[in-house]
Amino acid sequence: MSGLRIRKGKALSQHPAIELIGIDKSFGAVHANKNINLSVAKGTIHGIIGENGAGKSTLMSILYGFYQADRGEIRVDGQSVAIKDSQAAIGHGIGMVHQHFMLVENFSVLENIMLGAEGGQLLAKGRSGARAELKRLEDEYGLEVDPDAIIEDLPVGTQQRVEILKALYRGADILILDEPTGVLTPAEADHLFKVLKVLRDQGKTVILITHKLREIMAITDDVSVMRRGEMVATRKTAETTVEELAELMVGRRVLLRVEKGEPKVGKVLLSVRNLTVKDSRGVVMVDDVSFDVREGEIVGIAGVAGNGQSELLEAIAGIRKPASGEIQLDGKPIADADPARLRELGLAHIPEDRHHMGLVLKFEEYENAVLGYHRDKRYGSGALLDLNAIRADAAEKIEKYDIRPPNPRLKTANFSGGNQQKIVVAREIERDPKALIIGQPTRGVDIGAIEFIHRRIVEMRDAGKAILLVSVELDEIRSLSDRILVMFAGKVVGEKGADASEQTLGLMMAGIAA
Amino acid sequence: MSTASVPLPNWITYGLMPLLNLIVAFLISGLVVWWIGENPIEALKLLIEGSLGRGDAIGFTLFYTTSFIFTGLSVAVAFHAGLFNIGSEGQAYVGGLGAALVALSLDQYVPWYVTMPFAVIGAAVFGAAWAFIPAWLQAKRGSHIVITTIMFNFIGAALMVYLLVHVLIVPGKMAPETRTFLPGGQLPKLDWLMALFGLKLGPAPFNVSFLIALVMCFLVWVLIWRSKLGYEMRTLGISPSAAVYAGIPYARTVIIAMLISGGLAGMMALNPVMGSSARLQVEFVGGAGFVGIAVSLMGRSHPLGIIFAALLFGILYQGGADLSFEMPNITREMIVVIQGLVILFAGALEYMFRPTMVHIYQRFKRA
Predict the structure, then answer these.
(1) Where are the domains of chain A?
(2) Is the pLDDT at A6 greater than 60, yes or no?
(3) Which of residues 19-38 of A touch B (CB under 8 A)?
(4) Per mean pLDDT, which of A168-172, A282-286, A491-495, B322-326 is the most reliable?
(5) What share of chain A is helix, strand, coil (3-state, %, to 5)?
(6) Closest residue in A to B2 (Cα–Cα)
(7) HSE-CB for A146 with a 13 A CA cutoff
(8) Over chain A, what is the mean pLDDT?
(9) Residue A351: which of B7, B245, B248 has the nearest Cβ?
(10) In the list A78, A235, A312, A399, which could disulfide-bond A15, CB 3.0-4.6 Å?
(11) Which residues pair with A292 in a beta bridge?
(12) Residue B14, C-beta contacts closer than 8 angstroms, at least 6 positions apart
């Protein structure tokens, strides 16, 4: 056991827990971190905030040993250290909780926590030791979890707790959390914040990476803002405001709310009746759902990720065959139509996951600009593609949507998240569809692009399109939607107007009140 | 891990790195040659002379190259659709049946240039047919294409032996082979092409199917990068989920890709069957289908790369045969070892030098 907790002796030094001095890192032409200086005081929660692509993740990856800095120095507790890999990081007491959990789904909690630190060839001894240690950590930090539960049976919030325990078990004094609340319900997020505060009060240091300003204000002691690879400011959280931080992140004033007028609603365009959808294992994911979306309105579906919204979108988009129920587009039944046919009928789809669905990342930009529409006569009359027409079309969209860099021949993977999303949005909106279904339109998208995409969606609404919006960002649902449906455990548990409070929706999302 | 995302210019990725891999493969081969007591420099000289030194040597090299282009294209087309077709060997074998049947039925009546298009079609159709069942099983039943195609290699081999021994054999003869095709069923040699370069072809069976192979390279390029079908195949190959999103039909695309792949493999038979031995024999494919996998890997599944890779393997085949003749210590098996090293370094370890390359490149760029 003790061999595992390789820690420097805890002298009561007044050195900062972490000091980064002049960290510099480039990937090819991309200068991800420019001469970064950062000092994180012991026993504090330090927020690092910035848009996607600002360099937060790179910086933390350098601290955790995934990447090596080209230049610069890392000091842990005042001592200059070289962190070659994550083993070294753990050795220096640095633990990381990733955005996507690194857990073996069909192992128990205990097995996951021991993984990589089994303490010998035979498991029995390590297991009993780990069990005792886990108990101690639970008592000390209030991190309750059943050590024998299987990971895949646990709610996401609990899985995250396991990740935190994993880091603590390995003797972490400094915890890095990368966008920890992305997958949590508001209640689970609150619980996480409580845990983080306990950890801080017990003397641990927490570094919280996020792009959510609200979280920064709620929980951190200090906050550092990154923009385009540079550390632009560090503030005491108590002495700053949301507006100031937003402006620092983007480098200009930002409109945080979407401006839109009253909806001019017409006839029903998209109609869903008694729709039931099962996943590949036969589990009912969408359970007898009915609703309408009319011309000129945005209907938002709020819900914690995994409550059937994704399957609902996929069923409407023709990607997943419904088990039963009806879907109509402008009076035509479409439950059996495939995605190609749906596009012809005027249903556009901005998918939740642009990396796996909306885009082929290895394609050049112009190839993605026609994905799904490549059989259209405009892009070649016979069996061959008219590359000139496609590239001209792509160039036009690049200009109209300000996609950067403006190069249709660039590989799509080399665009930033926001620009990738703009490629998808441009492709789907510019076809002038009747109805548009949208999943997570701004996930992993920087603030400037969020504003732009939101404005496009509202323009579509004002042009009389029927829009169905699914998002796990409650703020986004509330600011865009004209009506809000809340999904919980596959059912629509209620409908609210756009003025519904966050608390009301939050409770409904947790399945507590209707 | 950290260098994988760094883009390198094409001349490094497609020029310098393959060359470096090849040099390392030859260096290690040289060590092996030296270890068994021969002079590596001398061996390399013999290898090059034996494959490129004389007109007939070049002819043999290009003859092998032709076969490898066909099978390399076959593997590449399937690969673009995300399918690993290990069955080119069997598809080429059965393709030979198609070519032979056309040749046997037309050679008495028409000249070769009339027979040729039918033979191309016959070979392609038979090869495609042999790929169809694994393709259908993959598309509709989810049986893994690697398993089914490799099993179909064995079934194909057994089928062909049966047909040659019991059905196609010339009555009264002992050899399991068809009758010799008349000139109307043979593909003529390319003496004139060699003569353009002042070379004599001699006995080498370098023939018209080389030109067919080059045409197929162009057609495959058009298919993959210029056609809607190719676009759908590539989408499916890189991202099956994006293909679903885009409404690209999985089963249809898989089956068509495999039919094309099998057809290209089948055409390989034209070269040995109609261009060289002028009859259908057992085991005429001789491993070219498997070499196609290496050729496609090394040529990055691009027709141009495949031509170069096929040429390299043609050189290794022909030069290797000559080398083992001149240096008895270097047996046929030694040549296979050398070929294996080339496959290992150029195919499996193609990214071995990439991180180093990235570091050097970045240092140069900064300086």
Answers:
(1) 14-101+163-249, 258-346+433-514, 358-431
(2) no
(3) 26-28
(4) A491-495
(5) 35, 25, 40
(6) A67
(7) 10
(8) 87
(9) B245
(10) A78
(11) A271
(12) B300, B305
Give the β-pairing of A45-50 and A222-227: parallel
A14-101+163-249 and A258-346+433-514, same CATH topology: yes
Q: Model confidence over B10-54: pLDDT tens digits? A: 788 777 888 888 888 889 989 988 988 889 999 999 999 999 998
Nearest C-alpha of chain A: how many angstroms from B241?
5
Total residue length of chain B: 367
pTM of the model as a whole:
0.79
How confident is the model at residue A272, as a pLDDT?
96
Residue B345: strand, helix, or coil: helix
Residues of B in contact with A371 (CB under 8 A): 235, 242, 245-246
Mutate to test the interface with A, among B231, B233, B252 (most CBs of A within 10 A): B231
Largest CA distance in chain A: 76
Q: Which two tokens stand for residue B364?
A: 């140069």
- Which residue in B282, B271, B266 sits closest to B167, CA to CA? B282
Q: How far is B24 from chain A (nearest CA, A)?
A: 27
CATH class of A14-101+163-249: alpha beta
CATH architecture of A258-346+433-514: 3-Layer(aba) Sandwich (3.40)
Asked if B363 is an interface residue toward chain A (Cβ–Cβ < 8 A), one would say no
**B226 vs A374: CB contact, 8 Å cut-off?**
no
pLDDT of residue B1: 38
C-beta separation of A508 from A493 below 8 A: yes
Q: What confidence tens digit (pLDDT) does each residue in B50-102 have?
A: 999 989 999 999 999 999 999 999 999 999 999 999 999 999 999 999 999 99
Which chain A residues are Cβ-neighbours of B242 within 8 angstroms? 356-360, 371
Q: Is B235 on the interface with A (CB under 8 A)?
A: yes
pLDDT of B260 over the 90 cut: yes
